[in-house]
Amino acid sequence: MDDRGGEVLRALAAQPGGPQLQMIGLGRDDVSLVGGAVRDLLLGRAPRELDVVVAGDAEWLARELASMLAAEVTLHGRFGTAVVEWEAGRVDVAERRAESYPAPGALPEVRPGSIEEDLRRRDFTINAIAVPLGGERRGALDSAEHALEDLAAGRLRVLHDRSFIDDPTRLLRLARYRARLGFEVETRTAELAAQALATGALAMVSRARIGAELRLALGEADATEALDALSELGVLPAIDPSLSFDASLARRALALLPQDGRGDLLLMAALLLDGVQHRGEATEPAMFELLDGLEFTAGERERVMRSALAATSLVGELALAAKPSQLHETLFALPLEAVALAGALSEAESAAGAAATGWLERLRHVRLSITGDDLLAAGVSAGPELGRRLDATLARKLDGELADGREAELSAALEASV
């Protein structure tokens, strides 16, 4: 057993699903932990999920593992893969395979392969490492050329010169790994990435696949680093010329965004902000087409667009809101992401910046204790008048004009001039 392979197996035993995987693997000589899971365990990091390859019958292995973990299984028979998921973790199971690409950017054609062929099909050398879980070679390290030295050096290197041409989505993964791991891009790999972008490689890939990779970047633990890398590598404008990234602005906006906001959607709106500022609402149809092509859901698309379109004009409106009730009227129907972006566009000490912060931290949580039912019980007729009385009372409460308690609210609502 290789010392480093033994280190991986010991670390695997502490991961969710790890002991069960090792129990299954001990009885076979064709099951290996592979890819990002091995990379992360060698780096002393906790993997996001465990990746396993088997010579054949991924479905059997997945079902066996799921029965031990009381987990759910999702099968993808066309690709010979399966996913085992439960509350504590996830294991991706795949049959060992070799791949060839019939055309640039096309989905690969696959066939059964050896562990060496399976490693050669991967994106970067640091992800082309495997550790057998059973048999005579249990705990050995199988790796592509340069894999272990690149991992030790903190270096990102593709496995062959056509890597970005065969699968241009690897350009987005390059940025994600650079940000997540803090690794440098190897010189030849950087040249190949630039060449692929210059020849329009991303245009050969479906927008859906690009969208899937972009959403992964938006969901990174430090998504601003990932987007900064995408910008620096030239990937963002290759996806769409309207996309640009201001890391400083994004970090300020994320710092303002409450926990119930969506950081990924805020960042997507931030990517679109420069285009909106230069071309105004005329960009709305193009924005819709872009987000739709990238397969954001209808709800996500609406939230991103409203945030990007509203943020710039909100800066002036925030500065003019003299009372908390006016702030409420301006902001209550807008996404939190729009307010956070507007606050980030303002100087923190400015009236607009203070208004955005005050709304996000305190004022949006102000609620009435009374409801329409209380007004009905007090003799107010059903209809729009109920809402108008409640709105007027909330405005007074926001502006500090009411004493605390239900009685003060009810009296104000009954006295309201509607």
What would you say about this model in short?
This protein is α+β, with helices and mostly antiparallel strands and 418 residues long. Helix content is 54%, strand content 11%. The relative contact order is 0.06.
Structural notes for this entry:
The protein is an alpha+beta fold. The chain is 54% helix and 11% strand. The chain has helices at 3-12, 18-26, 36-42, 58-69, 115-120, 147-153, 163-166, 170-181, 187-198, 207-218, 223-233, 235-239, 247-256, 263-279, 284-293, 298-320, 324-331, 336-345, 351-361, 372-377, 384-398, 406-415, and strands spanning 31-34, 50-54, 72-76, 81-86, 89-95, 97-100, 109-112, 129-132, 142-143, 155-156, 184-185. The strands form three sheets. A seven-stranded mixed sheet has the order 3-4-5-2-1-8-9. Helix 14 (263-279) crosses helix 18. The radius of gyration is 27 Å and the shape is elongated. The chain starts with a helix and ends with a helix. The model has no long low-confidence stretch (mean pLDDT 93).
Question: How would the blueprint of this fold be written?
Answer:
Layout: H1 3-12, H2 18-26, E1 31-34, H3 36-42, E2 50-54, H4 58-69, E3 72-76, E4 81-86, E5 89-95, E6 97-100, E7 109-112, H5 115-120, E8 129-132, E9 142-143, H6 147-153, E10 155-156, H7 163-166, H8 170-181, E11 184-185, H9 187-198, H10 207-218, H11 223-233, H12 235-239, H13 247-256, H14 263-279, H15 284-293, H16 298-320, H17 324-331, H18 336-345, H19 351-361, H20 372-377, H21 384-398, H22 406-415
Parallel strand pairs: 2-5, 10-11
Antiparallel strand pairs: 1-2, 1-8, 3-4, 4-5, 6-7, 8-9
Helix pairs in contact: 8-10, 8-11, 13-14, 13-18, 14-16, 14-18, 15-16, 16-18, 16-19, 17-21, 18-19, 21-22
